[in-house]
């Protein structure tokens, strides 16, 4: 991940880029876990991705008539990206971390949105979490923090290398609802690869990646 391993990437010969789900989940959670703002226990990650996240291979479940006007979970309890998420969260928490992670396929071409349910540390709230992100990602050109009254949506990042984060206090005391959205084909895939290549080759980190989200 470019924002979390920038210095190591600059010196690397080979770099493996994470998938779109780990990128969104870890961008959202790592700063908060490292700052002990939320509990690493009982994390629930509800993820939704556009059909392009499943690749271009011929699969019955990805046919137009199967996807249109429908939504379905997949990889339930066994998704291949879960170990990546748990690996990095465990490093940040300095103890083993497990998560409940369920991805869903939604009838859009591209885009990804994660809703994460977490337990707050004492004296923490959504406003303070947003401040933690803003400080942590102050030098990260592609990570943006939504305002208190702004709900992140996939249209905010469509076709771009940006990742948008949001935090909202739950009606349940001591709980918070966290949201991350990115384009699974850009920041979640090829865009992050270009970002890492820029770091490895000594180019400007933003080279070729400053296009704004597509709208409408």
Question: What is the topology?
Answer:
Layout: H1 6-10, H2 20-34, E1 43-49, H3 64-67, E2 72-73, H4 82-93, E3 99-105, E4 112-119, H5 126-136, E5 143-145, E6 163-169, E7 175-182, H6 186-201
Parallel strand pairs: 1-3, 5-6
Antiparallel strand pairs: 1-4, 2-3, 4-7, 6-7
Helix pairs in contact: 2-4
Task: Pick out its properties.
single chain, 216 residues, alpha/beta
Q: Can you describe what's shown?
A:
The protein has 216 residues and is an alpha/beta fold. It contains six helices and seven strands; from the N terminus they run ααβαβαββαβββα. It has helices at 6-10, 20-34, 64-67, 82-93, 126-136, 186-201, and strands at 43-49, 72-73, 99-105, 112-119, 143-145, 163-169, 175-182. It has a seven-stranded mixed sheet with strand order 2-3-1-4-7-6-5. Helix 2 runs parallel beside helix 4. The longest helix is centred in the last third of the chain and has 16 residues, at 186-201. The chain is globular and about 50 Å long.
């Amino acid at each position: 991940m470019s924002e979390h391993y920038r210095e190591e990437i600059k010196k690397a010969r080979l770099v493996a880029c994470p998938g779109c789900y780990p990128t969104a989940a870890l961008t959202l959670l790592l700063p908060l876990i490292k700052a002990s703002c939320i509990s690493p226990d009982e994390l629930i990650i509800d993820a939704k991705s556009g059909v392009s996240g499943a690749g271009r291979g011929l699969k019955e479940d990805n046919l137009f008539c199967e996807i249109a006007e429908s939504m379905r979970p997949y990889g339930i309890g066994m998704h291949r990206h879960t170990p990546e998420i748990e690996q990095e969260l465990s490093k940040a928490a300095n103890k083993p971390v497990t998560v409940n992670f369920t991805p869903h396929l939604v009838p859009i071409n591209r885009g990804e949105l994660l809703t994460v349910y977490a337990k707050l540390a004492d004296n923490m709230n959504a406003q303070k979490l947003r401040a933690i992100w803003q400080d942590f990602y102050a030098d990260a050109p592609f990570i943006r923090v939504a305002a208190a009254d702004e709900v992140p949506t996939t249209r905010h990042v469509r076709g771009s290398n940006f990742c948008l984060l949001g935090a909202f206090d739950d009606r349940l005391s001591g709980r918070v609802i966290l949201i991350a959205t990115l384009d699974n084909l850009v920041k979640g895939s090829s865009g992050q690869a270009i970002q890492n290549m820029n770091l490895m080759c000594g180019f400007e980190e933003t080279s070729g990646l400053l296009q704004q989200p597509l709208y409408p």
